[in-house]
Amino acid sequence: MIVFVTGATAGFGTEIARKFLKDGATVIGTGRRKDRLSKVAQELGPSFHGISFDVGKRSEVEAAIASLPAELAAVDVLVNNAGGAVGLDPGPSADLDDWDAMVDSNVKGVMYCTRLLLPGMVERKRGHIINIGSTAGEWPYPGGNVYCGVKAFVRQFSLSLRSDLLGTGVRVTDVEPGLAGGTEFSQVRFKGDEKKAAAVYKGARALTPEDIADTVHWVATRPAHVNVNVIQVMPTDQALGPLAVHRTS
Ligand code: NDP
Ligand code: 8X3
């Protein structure tokens, strides 16, 4: 099995790669940071193949996928994991560069990798696109604005692709984690502010990257006639909040 994992230089992506490698798969792992990619490659061994590119830059994605050697080109499972949140500012004061960055990685990245790897899957009559969405795609929260929006895109894109792919044998799943620690997610969201990042997980037992890797591996290893459309996973210490009401008196 050949598994293509975007965002394998940290967090969920590294663990997803590790999980499939343990199961005997060959993994192509990606990320922008070449140094991190080399470290992960060293740690995970010779069945891990790192390629560095920015998922939000179409020409880079095209070049990277076109450069796959023949023995790695027939990808069975694409895990669109690269992405994340940048900022938690309310809409009126949010930074448009942050919004652009989230659209680039979470929307364009998913679009480009999917579109370029899908024709081969359809031709081979097998394959699985596993997108990492988020509870944020279904449950909005203050400051979530564009991050919630891009993850809602991931859910709807996944479900709509299922309709396009009916009869092809190719599966699509949206995996939607809730609060998960042990990754760089909050450091990136808060631009390196370790205090703010740590506060997100304080006193709660969050999901771990291993939990998400297990979930991704589980959906990928169901029998070929079973498609998990959407799977939402939260830590037991998290629940859905009440709707907010602004009261003037
Ligand atoms: P991390 O920040 O730890 O990892 C993100 C990965 O994505 C890194 O490998 C990073 O690599 C890569 N990446 C980000 N932007 C780009 C880009 N433009 N081009 C290429 N690679 C990129 O985050 P997590 O592991 O926590 O998150 C993984 C996914 O899970 C994301 O889509 C996130 O939105 C989602 N998620 C996370 C949750 C959480 O609470 N942690 C919960 C729900 C969903 P590099 O910087 O080297 O490019
Ligand atoms: C990450 C979970 O709640 O921080 O997607 O948006 S949340």
Outline:
With 249 residues, the protein is an alpha/beta fold. The chain has nine helices and seven strands; from the N terminus they run βαβαβααβαβαβαααβ.
List keywords for this structure.
Rossmann fold, 43% helix, binds 2-hydroxyethylsulfonic acid, binds NADPH dihydro-nicotinamide-adenine-dinucleotide phosphate, alpha/beta, globular
What's the helix and strand layout?
Layout: E1 2-5, H1 11-22, E2 26-31, H2 34-44, E3 48-52, H3 58-66, H4 70-73, E4 77-80, H5 96-124, E5 127-132, H6 145-164, E6 170-177, H7 185-189, H8 194-199, H9 209-220, E7 230-233
Parallel strand pairs: 1-2, 1-4, 2-3, 4-5, 5-6, 6-7
2-hydroxyethylsulfonic acid binds next to loops.
Shape: globular
> What is the CATH homology-level superfamily?
NAD(P)-binding Rossmann-like Domain
Averaged pLDDT? 98
Structural class: alpha/beta
- Low-confidence regions: none
CATH architecture assignment name = 3-Layer(aba) Sandwich
Strand order of the largest sheet: 3-2-1-4-5-6-7
What proportion strand? Answer: 5-15%
- Radius of gyration computed on alpha carbons: 18 Å
CATH class: Alpha Beta
How many β strands by DSSP?
7
Q: Could you give a short account of the major beta sheet?
A: 7 strands, parallel
| CATH topology category name | Rossmann fold
Number of domains: 1
The level of helicity is 40-55%
Q: Which small-molecule species are bound to the chains here? A: NADPH dihydro-nicotinamide-adenine-dinucleotide phosphate, 2-hydroxyethylsulfonic acid
N- to C-terminal separation? 61 Å
Number of helices: 9
Can you write the helix and strand succession as a string? EHEHEHHEHEHEHHHE
